[in-house]
Amino acid sequence: MVDFSLSENDERILDAMREQSRVVRRYARYYDDNENELPPDALPEVVNFRSPYKDVEFEEGIDTPRHVLHVLVSAIQAWGDYGVLMKRIGEGLGNGVLTAAGTDEQRARWQRCTLAIAMTEPGCGSDPKSIQTTAVRDGDEWVLNGEKIFVTAGCRAEGVVVAATVDKNLGYKGIKPFVVMKGMPGFEVSHREKKMGIRADDTATLLLNNVRVPGDHLLGACDDSAAGFRAIMTALNRNRPVVGVAGVGIASAALDFTREKLKEEGIEIVWGVGKQGRSAVQQELIEIEADIEAATLGLLHAAWVSGGNEWKARPTSIAKAKAGEVARTATQRCLALLGGLGLSREYLVEKWFRDARITDLYGGTGEIQRLIIARDILGYSSAELP
Amino acid sequence: MVDFSLSENDERILDAMREQSRVVRRYARYYDDNENELPPDALPEVVNFRSPYKDVEFEEGIDTPRHVLHVLVSAIQAWGDYGVLMKRIGEGLGNGVLTAAGTDEQRARWQRCTLAIAMTEPGCGSDPKSIQTTAVRDGDEWVLNGEKIFVTAGCRAEGVVVAATVDKNLGYKGIKPFVVMKGMPGFEVSHREKKMGIRADDTATLLLNNVRVPGDHLLGACDDSAAGFRAIMTALNRNRPVVGVAGVGIASAALDFTREKLKEEGIEIVWGVGKQGRSAVQQELIEIEADIEAATLGLLHAAWVSGGNEWKARPTSIAKAKAGEVARTATQRCLALLGGLGLSREYLVEKWFRDARITDLYGGTGEIQRLIIARDILGYSSAELP
Amino acid sequence: MISFALTDEQRLLRETVRKFAQTELREVARACDEASRLPDELLATVADLGLVAGVMPESFGGGGSDRSPVTNTLLAEELGAGDSSLGLAAVAPALFAIPVLEFGTEAQKEQLLPMFSEPGFHAASMALHEAHFGFDAAALRTVAAPAPGGYRLTGSKRFVPLGDRASHILVIARLEESGLEGLEAFVVPRDSKGLECAPEPEKTLGLQALPTAALELDGVEVASEARLGGENGIDGARLINLCRVAGAAFAVGASRTVLEYATAYAKDRLVSGRPIAQKQAIAFMLADMEVEVNAMRHLVWKAASELEQRRDASRMATLASDYVRRKSMEIADKGVQILGGHGYIRDYPMEMWYRNMRALTILDGVGIV
Amino acid sequence: MISFALTDEQRLLRETVRKFAQTELREVARACDEASRLPDELLATVADLGLVAGVMPESFGGGGSDRSPVTNTLLAEELGAGDSSLGLAAVAPALFAIPVLEFGTEAQKEQLLPMFSEPGFHAASMALHEAHFGFDAAALRTVAAPAPGGYRLTGSKRFVPLGDRASHILVIARLEESGLEGLEAFVVPRDSKGLECAPEPEKTLGLQALPTAALELDGVEVASEARLGGENGIDGARLINLCRVAGAAFAVGASRTVLEYATAYAKDRLVSGRPIAQKQAIAFMLADMEVEVNAMRHLVWKAASELEQRRDASRMATLASDYVRRKSMEIADKGVQILGGHGYIRDYPMEMWYRNMRALTILDGVGIV
Which of A174, B37, B180, C323 satisfies CB 3.0 to 4.6 Å to A290 for a cystine? Predict the structure, then answer.
């Protein structure tokens, strides 16, 4: 039955998350101001909090499936802050590649490490197939050379799954995942990016200068299948809905703030009144609220149809496209409604404007999502619709 | 000196045009309802009116240059009606091709005839180079075969300049203009298009079935230069600003109507008030008004920089792109502001909604204009940005 | 719990209505639009489908299905996808039947509902829209003045669906308060004294196959029993929300069809030997349309679900209808743009959808879930 | 007569300012943004350019150029194209000097204008924006109450450009009427009793190189001679319009630079060996930006021209500023999108422009033409 109401258990979980997020938010300005510091893996207040799901038994048929509810939980997390978390999980995106492409032995060896993924390069934007980082076999070892940018958690991670090509003639089939651990000679974190927003976030540029890794650091087999490449792409794509959810979380934070402050000035939405009876500000608030609601529902829908398995491509791209757009425009419009005061760093709303902008850029830009959607509805390959 | 004020003479001309347009508008509904009838070349009231420019001496440095003022004059004409005119000029778009490409003899022979241009075909949309209509030399004659659609004034015109290829291998250089007069065996007006709007307008589908025309009906030389093709394109492009101007004229008609009717209901724009003090409807009226103002200024600017010569490509495409967009959205929004009553054929505003939609489709769609603009600012050829 | 799952019954019903809409509505849509004609045969088929009778209580001869705004929303999307004009006509009697079912006293239900379960199509309607520009349901001008033994209704109504043939019309009027809370509904038989009911004076921009009427109420006297819900009256906000969601659901369906048609067209249409769909400018328009069809549908579902659960749905109905009003027009606009000149001529359906979409998202009170 | 022609003088001046803005402003813009720093050397150069002194009457030692909001609009575009933050700082004294020139009594002009023609940069400013959310110049909360021999000013002002160093501040307050008509301006020296003038408590999202201050006016007493224009006061609507057009003109310049930069980037940036500018998705964004930069500029010019001719420019100033507020933000947004990840990191200027654009189109009263 179509239903969008929350059960008591659902509400308990969301309330618990909200409580954590309110605490997290106290740290938001600090790590925005001090971008050279990384937020800790856990905040001091973590002792007072458990996972919001803990102590809440799942009731089949009454409670929202956890993989669906998790959209709202994660949105509330980002509503608290994008980069500061109450407690960071030990996994990076690279752990997904390890699980998917690694042998049992490889998995056993590295599964306790936090692994990032290093994919993007200065010369390849949205096209992973044009990777220039090379891995050349030399006896029992691989020798890696190249530069990787926009590596999420690249500073914090203990190791990195580096996408490198063993044979450019093979195209994407030649691209293999290599585990490169921090401290290996020639492997260096060049710098943490200085960004407009999400400054608590750890985005690194990595340099590989004749890094020699043992032969078994290549995850999976060195054949001409695309398995390794696919494992990397799948792990990266897993970030897509996560970024979308963060987008609506940040947008909601901005709207909540805007509503609250305008209410203090005597301006709020009166529901039920037709357009003729609304003020311009009320109308704009309604439009922003509808956008956020639509983006949230899109993400819930994508989670729902994916049924707890890998996120399905089309609904996820649809949801991500909308969420990325809404995160941009909602924060832009909220600031305009608030007037000059919203620009001041006294308040977090100017930070949300900066933070939100990332969500239409990574996890696949809005343009990439639209390409995926268009190809899917048209039945086109990427060659037919490049 | 930058100036947007109108001189007394300017105002007299515009007032004279407005007066004519108010009369023309009385016929608008009739020819919309009776699309099988063509409006007459001149309305009965024509005896009371002269050209709005008549009797107004031009004062250099005081009056707006006529080629610039003509943007406003034409907009007011379309504000009256798009398809019904007080008096139709004897020239068609094809006469421009005759003038540009024809020999003195050809010009002398056909210049008094109204000539349309037949360019578009069922299989070629925005790409004139893929024309399928053929002209094959047979002794002293050319034998033409093909189908032409969306021929403006195709029913009314006495003759048509048909774009046909004499050699497909030559590409656009093989495309030549042929004068085909009504009544020539094998030349037939298949039908007048039944359209959503601009129903007084004469848009025809023409069939050429072994039409034999004398050798000298090819305008200009039958060499492998692109002169003939260019003459056709230039004549067609001349329609670009005309269509844009019509767009703002129709949009203005809709806005004027909307303002008037909402004012009767007590709703009108109060200038000077900030966004915080406006109603949603006032805000929307302001946005529509700004759009129309911007589109109008763009057309005035294009006319100004073209200095009375052929319209310059970039400013004209910029102006046309904006005008086409505004014509669509302004009429859509006006109807939404008016509520259900605006949908009734008791009023003309629903007709303007239909009429306006053409202006982003012909004279080059909005997408074609954007391609032209993008190529120009990027310095790309049509091969580089197809 | 959050769920996007339809019940088996909903799936089945949706499939039936989809088939009907995609064949019987869509096939005749253009001819009916051109002729402003609603075919009697079609109404006979509609009656057989039992769209209205099905949800009437068994005690009044109906099918006894649960009252479900969500189910009706699903069906509205399908009807809108077939043809909004004919689709609205098909379910217009619900404009009368559903408010009676929801707000009527037992006596009113007993008196007024059985007619919808009788064989054949029974036309009844609701009169909400009024005869002035900038209409706002929250600022109604038609008034119900208390009169001896009942009320006196005065006002001008427009665009009453099937007003040309409706046996009864539910006239929405303001009793005391202003705003949506002040709305009341009165059962007015078409032969009432002081009631003038004439076909709309002119055709409308869109929805041309849907016959609509203009009503003049010149102090029409009705008994107090004619007030829906008796002395308690109706929940005016809920009535308007049910209508707003219906209009939005029709627009979702119409938008879906625009997208499907434009997609197929863009793949077929060659320029320089290649389909225009391979141009990013076109492909991205299609992608945007797909994104928005989904967004609109989700908002409408959520609003419908709140109505189904009898929560206060004013927020969601406002968000959904306002969003759909903007986005569905953009979708139809893009549909026309993708077809180019073909989007402007009546040999293709797109221009009709462009007109219908504007009408659909402006007219208040022509559908109900 | 309608004319888009600049005078020779305007061309010359524009060329000078363009050169200055494209080199001296643009080169240090990023460093100044990161450090929230306004270099003194820059202000010295600005003083040499005579942007403010040039338009002061010769009798007060100025250049005696005609007062021309159009010229100032052209210069504002150039300064915005170089760097909005530094550009606004450069012409901030005009926020004081121009209102005095326009509305001041002869005595006020004689007293207050000569300082702008002295050697070096003379800082003065205007205080319009207030310390509450949803600020609206037409609903000012700072009040001027008549007091013996003058007025008593009470209120909280924010974002006063160069408020950290201004010798005099023109405080905008409401005297009697509400709305723009009720606005009056009062000359307040910075050492006035009851005036607290502190740097903004925190940095702002954008325009970080522009020092701004917060003012607390706790019953500041000023003599009646401090009221600009004497008993006739000022034309409040005109003052606000002059400010709105200035903000919009800066945004036009900033938008132009965004477009130029994004265009060059898109041609340079290769994906799969081809420039991204060859993708229609990117190329169409650039085309849209070009269309809108032109549209914005024309609206701003028309508003400025009406101000120049001393017509009632409220309509055009509203249209222009409202349009520019929406479109310039979209342009900066597209600029970021075209640069992708590079649009988000501070190694590239685009993210700064994105922040500046939002600030520029929101802050009322930081520039004047």
Answer: C323
Instruction: Report the alpha-carbon angle B256-B71-B378, nearest 5.
Output: 110
Cβ-nearest to A290 among C3, C7, C323: C323
Nearest CA in chain A to D349: A196
Cα D74 from Cα D86, distance rounded (Å): 16
Are D171 and D154 in contact by the 8 Å Cβ rule? The answer is no
What is residue A125's predicted lDDT score, i.e. its pLDDT? 61
Q: Do D113 and D56 meet the contact criterion of CB atoms below 8 Å apart?
A: yes
Residue C92's pLDDT is 97
State the best of D2, D14, D280 to mutate against chain B, taking most chain B CBs within 10 Å.
D2
Dihedral pair phi/psi, residue A214, rounded to 5°: -60, 155
Spans of chain D below 50 pLDDT: none
pLDDT at B334 over 70: yes
Residues of B with CB below 8 A from C136's CB?
Answer: 339
Overall size of chain D counted in residues: 369
Residue among C172, C344, C361, C363 with most chain B CBs within 10 A, to mutate: C344
Residue D41 one-letter amino acid: E
Residue B265 CA to chain centroid, in angstroms? 35
Find the angle CA(A113)-CA(A118)-CA(A121) to the nearest 5 degrees.
165
- Residues D135-156: b if buried by 16+ CB within 10 A, e if exposed: bbbbbbebbbeeeeebbbbbbb
CB neighbour class for B332 (10 Å; exposed up to 12, middle 13-18, buried from 19): buried
Look up residue C6 and give its DSSP letter: P
CA–CA separation, C306 and C301 (whole Å)? 9
Q: What is the pLDDT of residue B98?
A: 95
Query: What domains appear along chain A, each with residue ranges and CATH number?
Result: 8-80 (no CATH), 93-225 (2.40.110.10), 230-378 (1.20.140.10)
pLDDT tens by residue, C233-289: 999 999 999 999 999 999 999 999 999 999 999 999 998 889 999 999 999 999 999
Eight-state DSSP code of residue B154: T
Confidence of residue B222 (pLDDT cuts 50, 70, 90): confident
Tokens at B22, concatenated: 């108010």
Q: How far apart are CA D73 and CA D302, in angstroms?
A: 10
pLDDT over 80 (residue B127): no
Q: Comparing C-alpha atoms, which of C350, C289, C327 is closest to residue B336?
A: C327
Strands annotated E in D306-352: none
A260-278 pLDDT, tens per residue?
A: 999 999 999 989 887 888 9
Contact C341 B125 (CB under 8 A): yes
On whether the pTM is more than 0.95, the answer is yes
Q: What is the 3-state secondary structure (H, E, C) of chain A?
A: CCECCCCHHHHHHHHHHHHHHHHHHCCHHHHHHCCCCCCCCECHHHHHCCCCCCCCCCCCCCCCCHHHHHHHHHHHHHHHCCCCCCECCCCCHHHHHHHHHCCHHHHHHHCCCCEEEECCECCECCCHHHCCCEEEEECCEEEEEEEEEEEECCCCCCEEEEEEECCHHHHHHHEEEEEEECCCCCEEEEEECCECCCCCCCEEEEEEEEEEEEHHHECCCCCCCCHHHHHHHHHHHCHHHHHHHHHHHHHHHHHHHHHHHHHHCCCCCCCCCCHHHCEHHHHHHHHHHHHHHHHHHHHHHHHHHHCCCCCCHHHHHHHHHHHHHHHHHHHHHHHHHHCHHHHECCCCHHHHHHHHHHHHCCCCCHHHHHHHHHHHHHCCCCCCCC
Q: In terms of Cα–Cα distance, which of A324, A117, A253, A31 is closest to D336?
A: A324
A321 touches chain D (CB under 8 A): no
Which chain D residue shows the shortest CA-CA distance from B72?
A: D2
In angstroms, how far is CA C146 from the centroid of its own chain?
Answer: 31
Task: Specify the amino acid at residue D324.
Answer: V
